[in-house]
Amino acid sequence: KQEVTQIPAALSVPEGENLVLNCSFTDSAIYNLQWFRQDPGKGLTSLLLIQSSQREQTSGRLNASLDKSSGRSTLYIAASQPGDSATYLCAVNDFGNEKLTFGTGTRLTIIP
Amino acid sequence: DGGITQSPKYLFRKEGQNVTLSCEQNLNHDAMYWYRQDPGQGLRLIYYSQIVNDFQKGDIAEGYSVSREKKESFPLTVTSAQKNPTAFYLCASSLRGAVYNEQFFGPGTRLTVL
Fold first, then answer.
1. Is the pLDDT assigned to residue B2 strictly greater than 70?
2. What's the average model confidence in pLDDT over B52-73?
3. Percent of chain A with pLDDT over 90
4. Which stretch of DSSP H or E encloses residue B104?
5. Chain B residue closest to A92 (CA)?
6. At B39, is the pLDDT very low, low, confident or very high (cuts 50, 70, 90)?
7. DSSP string across B22-76
8. Chain A: residue nearest B45 by CA?
9. Hey, are the CB atoms on B31 and A43 less than 8 Å from each other?
10. Considering only CB atoms, which chain A residues are within 8 Å of B107?
11. Does B71 touch chain A (CB under 8 A)?
12. Do residues B59 and B35 lie in contact, with contact meaning Cβ atoms separated by under 8 Å?
């Protein structure tokens, strides 16, 4: 059974710093991995999707990497801003499975 | 505006009542999903549907029911058999199945059982 872990559960960094969020998964037989952002009381916003054949994806200040063999993905946020404060969730889609398995998220606070 | 709408935003239910949560999308997506989110836990899949008139159980389907009579709509009924229904419910859709396709989420419905 796939398990997805995100550590730490919470992270605070000063504005302007670069930061890395981590996601690990137990079963490397995945189709893709998706990173989401969730603001308090809101739905999820898709940030990046990495296919299993890809190593990384970039969107603006965000860069996500995928290392299937080690069961890890990272989300790199450059030049952090207070508006980046949110909970970041990663989710994997397993082979032969239509569902996403989610981590519990990292709550990020950017300190002005 | 293309997107996914969920209604109502907040819902209060007395014990023993069935309630139906609405999910509509105008993205022309084939697949739709219902998730439940509880504090400190990841999202868990309740039901999903890849085509009209067909749906499959997810990990926690007990006490829930769905229908998919139209491509745009995937309502979720929380029945009185669901023992702990208080949670945040999220609907999602994707162009085809989850493979190679991003899932997009609605704003959610917060259900509270009184």
1. no
2. 96
3. 86
4. strand B104-105
5. B98
6. confident
7. EEEE-S--SEEEEEEE-TTS--EEEEEEEETTEEEE-TT-TTEEE--SBTTB--E
8. A99
9. no
10. 42-43
11. no
12. no
CA angle, residues A18, A20, A23, in degrees to nearest 5 = 165
* Contact B98/A at CB under 8 A: yes
Q: Which two tokens stand for residue A67?
A: 């290392």
Contacts of residue A98 in chain B, CB cutoff 8 Å?
A: 31, 48, 50, 56, 97-99
Q: Which residue has the tokens 């749906």?
A: B55
CB contact under 8 A, B103 and A46: yes
Q: What are the pLDDT digits (tens) for A19-58?
A: 999 999 999 989 899 999 999 999 999 999 999 999 999 9
The rounded distance, in Å, linking the Cα atoms of B60 and B58 is 6
Which residue has 């990663």 as its token pair? A90
